[in-house]
Design a protein that fits this description.
Structural class: alpha/beta
Number of helices: 15
Radius of gyration: 27 Å
Mean pLDDT: 91
Length: about 500
């Protein structure tokens, strides 16, 4: 996956040829695209030394005080400073990942990295189906705004896919949440229970409804709302519960349903990241009173921006329809029954959605294959905790989220992310807990504690997962993770010995 080249600070990669193995290890550990170039007193390059060179040398018994020159590669491939960049890039390959660029005197003046040719984004849309065909049709018929055949078709197809009586397309996932809360009767002075570990849109929608989000901690295995903590969070002002099927793994819904029924509370499912996931063979989005989906570009299916509200109650459907279109009565034009919103999806967006939904089975199969490859490729790697899947759930692994056990100053989540970025692997940290963020701190009591969400957020790292990600890409990502983590553990072990 190609990316635009960025300038390299070659000085960070240069070290004297007299350097010992220890100093080279420490330089590599600082993150220099995985290679150090050893130069003589005149700055002329003498050899290349990589993570792999160091690891093999140490494992074979070399002392950290031994000369790095003993293990450097002397017969290295190099590019010419006078050559076109495109010509030098041709010299890179899966086996030649670091290319020094030398001037006429043999001095390194730049370097190229395999990461400049091979880069995996954390997520990317897949638009290889009928998207262009249907969009062109929408444009050719002049139905480009919030009316047209593709809107109703997308809604029908989506409702059928998730198993809902109805589905209504809206501008985005946050709008879906907002409307779902409003038609559930949530308003000023009310409270809605929200998991502490989620994207801010979940809490934002509650605040925009005039209510207060009340945070509860999440379960350590599913990362979703911990139903065991619901009862103590409920007050006379509680109106609804918003379970979030985070990163594609369903929340444990049976206890949520039982508690909601006991207290007469509505359940609004935040399914922004869980389209296609199931809880006890039932799709997310049809388990509670209302389901809310997002079609942002990084979701399983996309319409660029967009969302969907699903449900089974015809009265709720009528209310959502009313509010999404300015609160206007259908039978009387421009007659507003309630102050509503312009939360409509366009026919062009819906055309993309129809094409995307046609491919969702293939998308999910590809993701499952990549997950299996991740699970195998990263198994038993010290300091890395892999995601789990409950026996009652089928996760879609919207992103593949690992946990990185901190190891002093040598390895933690942020260090691993930076080093993977240097190797061409894009990542993203797990969402920070809501209770500590300025926009939401008033929703967390002074004595509230959220140990699980705090720990997950501090150690969680999302690796790439997309519909077009290949198993070969995953194999390479796993190799890089193992190499980077192995190098860091090796440094620590040698430093402590």
């Amino acid at each position: 996956m190609a990316t635009q080249p960025t300038p390299n600070n070659i000085e960070r990669n240069l070290m004297p040829v007299e350097s010992d193995l220890r100093s080279v290890m420490m330089r590599l550990n600082e993150g220099v695209l995985g290679a150090v170039f050893l130069v003589d007193a005149d700055g002329v390059m003498q050899g290349v030394i990589t993570d792999g060179n160091v690891r093999r040398a140490v494992l074979s018994g070399s002392s950290l005080d031994s000369p790095a020159a003993n293990v450097m590669t002397r017969d290295f491939t190099w590019g010419k400073a006078t050559a076109e960049r495109s010509e030098n890039l041709k010299l890179l390959s899966p086996t030649i990942r670091h290319l020094p660029i030398l001037n006429s005197r043999g001095q390194p003046v730049d370097m190229l990295s395999w990461a400049e040719l091979w880069r995996v984004p954390v997520s990317a849309p897949s638009l290889g189906g009928n998207e262009l065909k249907y969009v062109s049709d929408a444009i050719n018929t002049n139905w480009v705004s919030s009316q047209g055949q593709y809107i109703s078709q997308f809604e029908r197809n989506f409702a059928e896919y998730v198993g809902a009586e109805w589905a209504l397309a809206v501008s985005n996932g946050t709008c879906a949440l907002h409307l779902a809360l409003l038609v559930s009767g949530v308003g000023s002075g009310d409270e809605v229970i929200v998991p502490d570990l989620t994207f801010g849109a979940s809490a934002n929608a509650v605040l925009h409804a005039g209510a207060r989000p009340v945070f509860v901690d999440v379960d350590a295995e599913t990362w979703a709302l911990d139903a065991a903590q619901l009862e103590r969070a409920i007050t006379p002002r509680t109106k609804a519960i918003m379970p979030v099927h985070l990163y594609g793994h369903p929340a444990d819904m049976d206890p949520v349903l039982a508690i909601a029924g006991k207290h007469g509370l509505k359940i609004v499912e935040d399914c922004a990241e869980s389209l296609g996931a199931t809880y006890k063979n039932q799709n997310t989005g049809v388990i509670g009173d209302l389901g809310c989906f997002s079609f942002f570009a990084n979701k399983v299916i996309t319409t660029g921006e967009g969302g969907m509200v699903t449900g089974n109650d015809p009265k709720l459907k009528a209310h959502v329809e009313l509010l999404r279109d300015h609160g206007m009565q259908k039978s009387r034009r421009y007659w507003h029954l309630e102050p509503g919103f312009n939360y409509r999806m366009t026919n062009v967006q819906a055309a993309i959605g129809v094409a995307q939904l046609e491919q969702i089975g293939t998308f999910l199969e590809r993701r499952r294959a990549c997950v299996e490859r991740y699970q195998h490729g990263l198994a038993n790697l010290e300091g890395i905790i892999l995601p789990t899947e409950a026996s009652w759930a089928r996760s879609i692994f919207w992103l593949y989220c690992i946990r990185v056990v901190p190891n002093g100053k040598d390895m933690n989540r942020d260090i691993l992310a930076a080093r993977l970025q240097a190797h061409g692997v894009d990542t993203r940290p797990v969402f920070p807990p809501l209770h500590g963020q300025p926009a939401f701190h008033v929703s967390a009591g002074a004595d509230s504690e959220f140990p699980v969400s705090t720990q997950l957020a501090a150690t969680g790292l999302c690796l790439p997962m997309s519909n077009d990600l290949t198993t070969a890409d995953v194999d390479e990502i796993c190799r890089i993770v193992r190499e980077v983590v192995g190098h860091s553990r090796l440094i620590l072990a040698r430093t402590e010995s």
